[in-house]
Fold each of these.
Amino acid sequence: MSHELGRVQTILQRLESVHGRPRRIARFDPMDELVSCILSQHSSDARSFPAFTRLKERFPVWTDVVEVDCAELADVIRTAGLANQKAKNIQACLRLIYKETGVYSLDSLRSMPTMEARAWLLKLPGVGPKTASIVLCFSMGRETIPVDTHVFRVSCRLGLIESAIGEVRAHDALMEIVPNDLSFRFHVDLIQHGRVTCRASSPRCVSCCLVDICPSCKEGAENRTPVRSETPIVRTRMRLSGVTA
């Protein structure tokens, strides 16, 4: 067992003793997940989810989304922010998907190896590593690690990766040290920890279950007062996770 693997396993065991173990509960198909993710970029769930709901209600089929005037689509998704650019990207994605596959579907990716499928998604307008990883992980059950601000911050503070590599390169860096069968749990556990304990501006090191193995923690292990989180498991972009104690 490598040092990195041992650390990852220890981190997950401790986090799940506090927050519970995440499990997948698939809800979105790949196309819905893709469009929902585009809407979520530089936005909050509270703003992007309602915009996605309005889009689906206003345009029941993807052909409607492609054929509507871009300005009208932007009005429908306005609350998600950056509506004009997102409307343009959504329509461009749908057109390219149809051109490449003959249907408004990403089901053809299911037969591809994970990295090949990710490369295919990255060719779509407005789709970066995080969006591609979310679609693969949450709607297809693939073992990728979407890196959002919480996953990146906590991974850096724990010394798993260097902050200098940035969030884009962090996807590949983390996949090199986190085993495939632990990638989903790693993603959800670090988001939960980042939102509840290892917060950006005021990390709660004194109550962190990882304090003695975290090189960035300001508190010594002797001051540690672990507490079981009373915050429900964070519902991340996947809308797929639950927890089992």
Amino acid sequence: MGVQATPVTGHRAWRLPAEVDTDQLAPGHAMKHGLEVIARHCLEGVRPEFAAGVRQGDVLVAGPGFGIGSSREQAASVLVHLGVAAVIAPSFSGLYFRNAFNVGLLLLRCPGAETIADGEHVRLDACAAHVLRADGQVLPCEPTPAFLLDMVQAGGLLPQLKARLGTARRATETP
């Protein structure tokens, strides 16, 4: 079962610059705390209003190199915690890319991401690999492998593995 092909409407875009690093997403001074505290400081150096203003289903739109820096998983987990539906950028750090999918955060590699305006509403179709802008323009994205889309739908790697183990366990149990 994959991510639904029907685009979801209502994703408000938060524009960010290129090379947003993991320290901006999960600042070092907050790392001794849980996600609740880290979330209050997410992107405070780039968009101070972000943590208080982001709403469930909003998306981040960034320039190339999103997620560079350390390999801290909290930099992706905090966005899931805040309800961010996806991050759209031309490119991502390799470590961030894998961490994001592991925690259930959708990333879309979209060469035209930087043309999306701050506050613009977009529709995402991860299966068809595109972003639909309010003016009807379709921005193509690189296709995301089905196994990663399945991971996002499951809520991340651990929930996906737990579901698989539960299914396998039920299949081997005798009535």
Amino acid sequence: MVTDFEFDPEKSLVATTYLAHRSGETMYTILKMVYVADRLHLERYGRPITGDRFIAMKEGACPSKIYDSMKVLRGENNHNHLPDSEHYLEVDATTYDVAVKDMPSLDALSASEIECLDETVSILARCGRWHIRDLAHDAAWKETGRNGTMDLLAIAKSIENGGEILARHLETRFSS
């Protein structure tokens, strides 16, 4: 099973803060937006943005380490994988609303990563949070047991028009 690329804490913090700032959404919608943006970047450029491992939770695909870090920000006692995130983000423990306290530099993100984050925000604006939720319930999510780790190859295969080619490329890359 290919589960993830290497997790990048800095990119993950910047991408999450960027999505929170641009969308004004709650923690749960932002987590699904991370999945949508990572999947979009995987489709277009052959790699995800964050490198986080996705879990097939009841309400959709969820980035594991970013979720753990958001729970720390709402006051739960978990491990924070996003360095200095408390300087940039705040999560209300009751409503799960996310407030952006400060924006980190976007230098950690490439132009293609910002493009996919912006497109995800655009999808949200056009179609709403329930559509984002639906996108996080794709074929890869459906074939993974609840609370199981989603296979990156399954995510790649779920991409229309070329997912099988991408999956073969990833399989070759990770089997060496």
Amino acid sequence: MLRKTFVIIPIILLALSGCSSKSKDAAVTGAAPTVGAPAAPAATPTDTTTPQACPTAQTRKLAKTRFIANAGLAAGAFHRYIYSPYRKGAFKSGAKGQKRAIVKAAAAGLFALDQLRRAKANVQADPGLCKVLSAPLQKLSATMKVLVDKLKRGEIDPTTIGAASGALEATRGTAGSAGAGFKDKNVPSNMIGG
């Protein structure tokens, strides 16, 4: 059973990462992308770009409620599968179940990134939240992306984990002051890979 998990989870991670070696090679070498591969943009925007303009009226129903749910799920996944195991020493060399803990942390990181993407979409749909939370969410997403990239390579960086935790708590505080405070939501283990 454990052997199947170690085979299935990396496959899921590769599928979720959405990276195609053909489109990577084309982007690196400057060759024309193959049929079916997305064209490489001329200049890739960074996560430090200015957030989109905020709407003047709400463009999505229940945007604040959806934001609270998405942010809570992202925070819950981060704390349960990344931060707590790190604090307990599950990622240390020689720890029992170290590889499994790292794989679960990477999967949880991908899940959290998806929830943050959804949370950003909901923030962009609400004028009040947009003005207050666009920048903190953008910073949190960028920090989480760096952490996930390292976890996918099997690297454990205490500085990055600490930075992600700090960015999450800063976003939580800002959201609370905007009337959209969120708490960690329990993520079902089957959503992270068992």
